[in-house]
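Limitations

Structures in this collection are predictions, not experimental determinations, and the ligand pose is part of the prediction. Treat each record accordingly. The example that follows, with uracil as the small molecule, is included so readers can see exactly what is and is not provided: the inputs are given verbatim, and the output is the predicted complex.
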Amino acid sequence: MSLSREQMLDEMGLSPQWVLRDRPAVERGAQKTAPASNPIDEIPAASAEPVANAEPIARMTWESLRQSIAGCRACALCGERRQTVPGVGDENADWLFIGEGPGAEEDARGEPFVGPAGKLLDAMLAAIDLKRGENVYIANAVKCRPPANRTPEAAEMAACAPYLKRQIALLQPRLIVLLGRAAVHAVLGEEGSLASLRGKTLAYRDGERTIPVIVSYHPAYLLRTLPDKAKAWEDLCRARALMHAASADL
Ligand code: URA
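Predicted complex:
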């Protein structure tokens, strides 16, 4: 996609009121730390569902993880998938965006967020000077398409959780952006409303590391609920400021 930033904001329904004031200069390859100048507001209890296959998955490389996901039969979603949709992007990315689960187009192509919601996500990324595949990784709470694009069930997200957990451990992102309630449930074990979690800096614990987490709306929801695009833009600006602070703290 080669739209200008103004066109991206336009695409998000945000022109002309929102202007990006400064740009982050995140130094790639430096040791990743949580941003000290942006304290974490609260740490929700992590979802602690024991999953039978979690232990071997926790030791996998990217390649073995992809193979394991491709052959996964841990829940009923495997029965209707055309293919698995493990995730896409830079495997050393500072930014990790997590959505809900693949839809029809993602199921057909094997890549997350390639349908209409994905086009909006690309526009959102571009509005904060990010691009799919460049310092950004995109994953979903579940790696197989739920039938008729329904929300994944808690047991399905629990069955897929070791994969997402391993992706986070391998990536070690500086920041996680959770898009929608299913992602929040899968990563933080939180079932509260998005409204109560937006605007805060939450935390994901990966062993000794604490990774800051920002919660925002799912792009598919934003396509249906145009007024909330402005709130999503606020979330993106917060995320961007947090990342900027993280790089300044290095
Ligand atoms: N919605 C999601 O949550 N993920 C996708 O990959 C596509 C649509």
